[in-house]
Write a structure and sequence with these properties.
The structure is a single chain. The chain is of the alpha+beta class. It has two domains: about 60 residues, 2,3-Dihydroxybiphenyl 1,2-Dioxygenase, domain 1, CATH 3.10.180; about 55 residues, 2,3-Dihydroxybiphenyl 1,2-Dioxygenase, domain 1 (Roll), CATH 3.10.180.10. It is built from two helices and nine strands. Strands 1, 2, 3, 4 and 5 form a five-stranded mixed sheet that branches. A four-stranded mixed sheet has the order 6-9-8-7, with helices on one face. A hairpin with a 6-residue loop joins strand 3 and strand 4. The longest helix is centred in the C-terminal third of the chain and has 13 residues. The two termini are about 25 Å apart.
Amino acid sequence: MELEHIALYVKDLEAMKDFYVQHFQAIPNQKYHNPRTGLETYFLSFAGGARLEIMQRPDMSEKSAGEHPLGYVHISFKLGSIEKVDQLTQQLQQAGCPLLNGPRTTGDGYYESVLTDPEGNMIELVA
């Protein structure tokens, strides 16, 4: 079995596409638009074959508040080295992405940092 993709509703479809293209070298497909529902989407492809679908539609609603809400928690990118984690962490912070944790070695042996994208979705960077 193979995980095909993960999907994420976003407020600003174009800004989020640009963020993942600029900082994670995502390759977007051509935007899909369903005029009946108002749904607009991009599939973003990453090195190694992973894909993220970002979506927007007029009838979206806010996720319930809380520090640890149920549901998906973060997207993790394996960068391949401690130096790359440190470098991208600094780059994202300079771009205005809040650092939530790290960079550090976790109790289970990962070297990671955790930030949020421009819409508050958690991104984990691992060596």
